[in-house]
Design brief:
Number of helices: 7
CATH architecture of one domain: 3-Layer(aba) Sandwich
CATH class of one domain: Alpha Beta
Structural class: alpha/beta
CATH superfamily of one domain: P-loop containing nucleotide triphosphate hydrolases
Largest sheet: 6 strands, mixed
Number of strands: 11
CATH topology of one domain: Rossmann fold
Length: 250
């Protein structure tokens, strides 16, 4: 079984410079539509935007389609029709019959609950995204590169612990290390700070901001929190009733 969102890098060569290598350029074009049935009434996701900003926030009320938009970009939800291009690579095109799998998209998704494997150690969880689909990495698999990421996230001392031995903030750091270790072309963050207390939320927001500045990976973050918008909203997409109603740039 493969982790759909911890994208193995396939045959791309890895080396010790992987952590510091910037991921550029970035251009995303999205025009998708999906009709969903509902007990009372239907819901239509009808999203269209184009972006080159490396920090994008999707903001809006609950039920606006924010998370569903991320899932469509990741390949977890298939639109009824439309097109998604990432750096001129066609991820989805209903007219052409193209629908790349999550693994083929080289996109990482950080779930709200972090989705760590409970039976794997911290090191093994991160190594999973380096393992080209290996379900249970050996405890020391890809140790050098894995430990580089754990050190980057200040989690190297916890490498041999299991997820149930970690705090919420520590779990998030491990999940982020796993997501970035695969060197994705785009990182998707679904309300990453929602379950954290105010102080920890502020601290981790700052850490991710610094990391993004250093590594230059593009990200899209879904949030209700104006503080997230202030930090990550180089481009803000305002979602309402399944559509992007307004775009704002800094």
């Amino acid at each position: 079984m493969k982790d759909a969102l911890s994208d193995p890098a396939g045959d791309r060569q890895r080396d010790d410079s992987a952590i510091s290598e910037p991921i550029t350029p970035f251009q995303l074009e999205v025009s998708i539509r999906r009709q969903l049935p509902d007990r009372r009434h239907g819901f239509t996701l009808d999203v269209e935007f184009s972006a080159s900003a490396s920090r994008i926030v999707i903001q809006g009320p609950s039920g606006a389609g924010k998370s569903m938009t991320l899932r469509a970009l990741a390949g977890l939800v298939t639109p009824d029709n439309g097109r998604v291009l990432l750096n001129q690579d066609v991820l989805f095109d209903s007219a052409a019959g193209i629908a790349k799998t999550p693994r083929e998209r080289h996109v990482s998704y950080l779930f709200q609950d972090y989705a760590l494997f409970p039976h794997l150690t911290v090191r093994q969880n991160v190594a999973f995204s380096l393992g080209r689909g290996l379900f249970n990495p050996a405890r020391n698999a890809w140790r050098e590169e894995t430990d580089q990421w754990l050190e980057k996230m200040h989690m190297q001392a916890y490498a041999d612990r299991y997820p149930n031995q970690l705090s919420g903030g520590q779990k998030q750091r491990v999940a982020l290390a796993r997501a970035l270790a695969s060197r994705p072309r785009l990182l998707l963050l679904d309300e990453p700070f929602a379950a954290l207390d105010t102080d920890l939320r502020q601290h981790l927001r700052h850490e991710i901001s610094q990391l993004q500045t250093q590594l230059q990976f593009p990200l899209i973050l879904v949030t209700h929190d104006p503080a997230d918008v202030a930090v990550f909203g180089d481009l803000v997409l305002h979602a309402q009733n399944g559509s992007i109603r307004k775009q704002e740039s800094k």
